[in-house]
Amino acid sequence: MNLKFLGASGGLGGNVSANNGSTCVQVADDILIDVGTGVTALNLQQMQKVRHVFLTHSHSDHICCLPMLLGNLFNVASTEQPVTVYGSHDTLEAIREHVFNWVVWPDMRELPSKEKPLLRLQEIEAGEVFQFGDITLEPFKTYHTVPTLGFAVRRTGRQTVFVADSGYAQSVVVNLNALGPIDDIILECSFPNELEDVANQSCHLTPALCDKLLSELAVQPRNIWINHLKPDVEQQIIPQLPSAWKLL
Asked: Metallo-beta-lactamase domain location, by residue (predicted)?
């Protein structure tokens, strides 16, 4: 696929794979999607190459390490190129109000100075296309308890679609079909089938709901990848997944 998962868990302490930190996806040396605890798979020098961070949504398992990542970049980013964090209006408002507020963390849009800040925020919308060399990213809306974006990543003729956190909804099917043929789709699967009521209430997926979503796509993806299992129920989820699906 076009992505490297540094963290693929729906929590902490899971045993499914080595990617047991919370969500962090590396698109390129300088591009990340989300900054959960999985970012700690990078060493200091690798972290200092990051210049673009795309956020799916504002939940803590997807943003919790953003302040500390930025704290590792004072000696490089502020003098070369600030780090741009991309997100929806709602996500960036949450970041401004609840993270970079001088209480939880200093406002890095003002450090080391307002004239040359370490951080800049860029509001994005579904359907915008971002080009970085041979890499294209296109956000699309998913269905979650807060406004959430998934990302289609295209490179060398291959389309990888990271659906991010999402429950089942017809709108998600429509948005995925609009992307065209998908080589790799990454779906979350937070709960087992027995907890479908909880999944629906929290706008997450179960194996059965993943299957329902996939069955309604106009063209079936070539590869199906599963992530974001809640650690305390992962042993219930795994036997319910078709053998052709791959765990991250």
From this structure: 21-213
